[in-house]
What does this fold into?
Amino acid sequence: MTSLPSADRTGSQDRILGPLPAAPRAGRKTIRQMIQLDANLAAVRSRIDDAAQSSGRNSSDVQLLPVTKSVSNEIASSLARRGWLELAENRAEGLATKVEALRAQDLDVRWHFVGHLQRNKAARVVAEITVLHSVDSLRLIETLERLTDASGRSLAVYLQVHLTGEAEKHGFAPDELAAAVARVQAAQHLELLGLMAMGPREESTDVTTRGVFERVVELGTTLAAEHASAFRDGRCRYSLGMSGDLEQAVRAGSTCIRIGGALYSGVDPQQPEAEGAGA
It folds into this structure.
């Protein structure tokens, strides 16, 4: 497999290696929105810091990944101008729109994809991203291998684990993970970062968010012990947690928190109240 530049920077912001393009002049409404955005970012980062401290972890080991689904191109570019140069989308159409808009402003963003990826849309998504969080089948791995072999571009991936029993969710069952790990390891241009999962929409006595996250970390620990060479740096990373359950994710061991709604409250009128996958 090909070694990639780091796709899991864990500080609150990506390092900026040079001056960003100048932003257009903002009106009063936009200034208020940006003040609110900064406040929301700080509040989410504080939640991560508090959860890490309470569980004996270093908060710098947890990446805050802004998910820009359902927000305007202007908000996405504002994040990039603030140094958040790793952003995520969960729909192919939204990704294409954001990539084009930010590229036109000379903003060099490393895009993640966190939603369910249909194989018939994989080519256009893979062409624009550096990290895919939702690899959920052996057939998708085969498609990714074919696409990356053809382009020569490397792609970092997480395997999605399905533990809630909900029909609308996707992913590998625990007993399917070893075969998936081996399949990614055999692909020349794929690099395995770790595991991704989502908690249940509604908890029950049998399925809880905390239980799902802790089980994913248990699975990852076992896989990394048995297949260390399959993972970047020999360790399994975890893409766990969204706006409503980030504390539980951090305490369980998450290294990447996918945040959407909590960042945009009072910022973007396009942002819906309810959150879906990856935010």
